Amino acid sequence: MSDWENESDRAAIENMVRPLKKPFRLDDTFEVRVMSAVHAEALAKIDAVHSREYPDERWWQKRYTLRFTPLGGLAIAASIFGVMVLGTIRPAQNAGVQNVHFILVNESAKQVYLVGDFNGWSRKGTPLTRAANKGAWTVTIPLEKGRHEYAFIVADETGEHWVADPLTPAVEDEFGTESSIVSVGATS
């Protein structure tokens, strides 16, 4: 005889099953939580595969072995030697070019620029660097033989000012602006 045929057992089972048949409402975050757990598990599996394929070494930490034929090794060694030799050879300097040192002493300057006919009077083309004593500004540039006009642009707290070099001869243009003169090499 089956339990389903007993009316009291059947009623008890129906009472237990009835609440289970009712629809159950889940909270709004349930789907997000489940998918996050699924993604975390998938990422853990991928990480496990990668850690087996790529142990703790990164590609830049791995050791590589380069193999060359004797002729290839000789060619590489000759190339390295050639680069070293060419790096030590200095090109012959143009006899008409000479390095000229420009110095301006100005303790209140925040920046100093050199302008002249040799750099197209470019205002920011040739900046000077502050010397260790913080009052002197210097720059060295190669100049061709001949006479060159130049001046300094001094930037300080009150703005920018055109300043002729106080240590060299000065000339005045048609507007009354003073510039300095430097002669390089023998002039004819």
Structural class estimated from helices and strands: alpha+beta
Q: In angstroms, what is the radius of gyration?
A: 42 Å
Note the overall shape.
Answer: elongated
| Count of the domains | 2
Question: What is the fold-level CATH name, i.e. the topology of the largest domain?
Answer: Immunoglobulin-like
Outline the biggest β-sheet.
6 strands, antiparallel
Look at the structure and give the CATH class of the largest domain: Mainly Beta
Strand fraction equals 25-35%
Give an account of the 3D structure.
The chain is an alpha+beta fold. It folds into 2 domains: 3-52; 97-184, Immunoglobulin-like, CATH 2.60.40.10. 31% of the residues lie in helices and 29% in strands. The protein has 3 helices and 9 strands. The chain has helices at residues 7-21, 30-53, 70-88; strands at residues 97-105, 111-116, 126-127, 129-130, 136-144, 146-156, 159-163, 170-172, 178-184. Strands 2, 3, 6, 7, 8 and 9 form a 6-stranded antiparallel β-sheet that branches. A 3-stranded antiparallel β-sheet has the order 1-5-4, with no helix packed on it. The longest helix is centred in the N-terminal third of the chain and has 24 residues, at 30-53. It is elongated, with a radius of gyration of 42 Å. The relative contact order is 0.09. The mean pLDDT is 81.
